[in-house]
Amino acid sequence: MNLILLHKDDFIGGTKRVTLHGRRLQHVLTVLRAKPGDELAVGLSDGLLGRGRVTMISEDELEMETTLDKEPPAPLPVTLLLALPRPKVLRRVLLTASSMGVKKIFLMNAFRVEKSFWKSPFLGEASLRQQLVLGLEQAGDTVMPDVHLRPLFKPFVEDELPGLIRGTTPLAAHPDAENGWPEKTAGPVTLAIGPEGGFIPYETDKLRDCGFRTVSLGKRILRVEAALPALLSKFF
């Protein structure tokens, strides 16, 4: 945790003073080992970054006086379309996407996505948010990504995707693509990443019809958790 993410209900009245309990308090106690007078990196969810000076700390509660005066880091200019991975993998890739600055994520269906994945409790709002928060805390960011579930491939690609990609460069990562990664991409990008083994031909055809260009990172077929940071690093 490189940033303590604050929420509006952490603040006492209309003051700059906050109180913390639970997981964040335990991190301050056991990892940061802060004491009164120490300053910690803080940020308000969907707001500014700053510093918090510890005024009181115990095993049950922490109080800080905060100063929030810095903008969060710029978002990555990428809308991510991700074929829903296995639940345990999903947690890791959401944390990675959040920490690398992706702000709009669509979890979509594909032929190689098992139907049971869509019934996972990890798709609950609280579980999704937990991983996104961990990513923000890691990166020192405050702006929460939006996650959208799209369990039907064909309606999503035909009806919604043309509007989503407007004004962006649409790229679909695919291990069998003849095209390598483009040397330059101007402006925002919509990036589609398929399931393990990639999209099936029907799906790549549908994406191409929509305007996507299929691209490859090379001859090696990577797991989603390896492909995602490799692809997103192209935008840094």
Can you describe this structure?
This protein has 236 residues and is an alpha/beta fold. It has two domains: 4-70, Beta Barrel (Ribosomal Protein L25, Chain P), CATH 2.40.240; 78-235, SPOUT methyltransferase, trefoil knot domain (Alpha/beta knot). The chain contains six helices and eleven strands. A six-stranded parallel sheet has the order 8-7-6-10-9-11, sandwiched between helices. Strands 1-3-4-5-2 form a five-stranded mixed sheet. Strand 4 (49-57) and strand 5 form a beta hairpin. Helix 2 (87-99) runs parallel beside helix 3, helix 2 (87-99) packs parallel to helix 6 (224-232) and helix 4 runs parallel beside helix 5.
Secondary-structure topology with pairs:
Layout: E1 4-6, E2 17-20, H1 22-32, E3 39-44, E4 49-57, E5 62-70, E6 78-83, H2 87-99, E7 104-108, H3 125-139, E8 146-150, H4 153-164, E9 169-173, E10 189-193, H5 201-210, E11 213-215, H6 224-232
Parallel strand pairs: 1-3, 6-7, 6-10, 7-8, 9-10, 9-11
Antiparallel strand pairs: 2-5, 3-4, 4-5
Helix pairs in contact: 2-3, 2-6, 4-5
* Dominant shape: elongated
Annotation field: number of helices: 6
Instruction: Specify the helix fraction band.
Output: 25-40%
Q: The CATH topology of the largest domain, please? A: Alpha/beta knot
Counting helices, strands and paired strands, the structural category is alpha/beta
Name the CATH class of the largest domain: Alpha Beta
